[in-house]
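pinning this so it doesn't scroll away 📌
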Amino acid sequence: YDYRSCDFKANFRLAVSHNFCTSISAPTDTFRLKDSVAPAVFPMLYATVDNGSQVSLFYQKSDSTDTRTYHIYRSKNGGAFSLLASLPDTGGISRRYKDAAVDPMNDSYCYEIQAEDSCGNLSAFTKTHCLIQLDGHRENLSDSLSWTAYSGFKVNKYYIYRWKNGGWNKIDQVSPATQNYLDTGLQCNITYSYKI
């Protein structure tokens, strides 16, 4: 017997028919049927800084067909996570959420997501993803860069980009254990921008 409901009470009786005769059982005791199965865990793919005032999160939908809502939580500067947004399930596999209430130049952010189904059951949280926060200091004809490690997936390399001639140019790459870099041979009175 298959019945879809969040929470209800019911009695059951069994009827058996043969030719023109029907036999009906006595009713069962009252059963409480409750859906307590949480939605399947799903992955947050990555989080990235789009610009100085926006972060994008990319995640895949839960495999559970009755998922209705995705709750996005954010932590700022290592503080407690708080609910940022609740988004309806709109179909499709890959999703993107834009957080435009951020200041990634001065603050660090971490994110995690939880799914909720039509009965209010909550999935486990996704793996927490924490953004890179890049800092830089001007030195003698060089720029000293340092950054926080990305967390949420295994990092194989960090690629360092510098803005030049109207575009981003990769200038070097370092191992995941390295979180600083000295860019040398620069010119005076020129503004340099970087991203990792």
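📌 and the second one:
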Amino acid sequence: EELMMGKKKGGRGAKAKPTSSGESCKFDWSPYRMDLLKALFSLLELPFQRLWDPPVPEENLFNTIITACFKMLEDPTCVHVRSADWRKSIISILGLLVRDHDQSARVTDKIFAVIEVLDHVNPVIAEMVLTFFDVYNSDKTMVELLRHFKSSTVVFDDMEDKADLKTKNFCVILQELTEKTPEFFVSHLPNLLTLL
């Protein structure tokens, strides 16, 4: 009940503030962020597929988890050093979804949606793609990103502002990947040459 009221047990919590329409909808989730991420990570490590017959989890479950993770990455403080723990937790959760639940296409769609409008997430996205490659042995995300970028450059030619931000962000991500691990970049060079 105290959680629902916006109070954290034994400490100060965010209080619900009425909006102009009189409803209370303001809540500070940041103190609960790591607990939520730990719970999501634990859930993904369990064989929860057994809850369904046939053992294929509903797509809405994955979509909800992916959306929640990317919503947290919209916070501009995600690139700060003090946010490293929860940023890495988000990347680990998304990595498990890509590796164990074949959600690479959905994660790539969300990455692409984020880089079209936000530029503070570029280092995080580069770190994410590298982690998927190094830790989760999946380069599907990079291939999907390249394919997505190539197909969207044709679509967005008439919308120059949106295309410019997306292109700039994508180039920053590629630069980050190149600086951190050139061998990763070289392995995807044939795919990149088709964009030039």
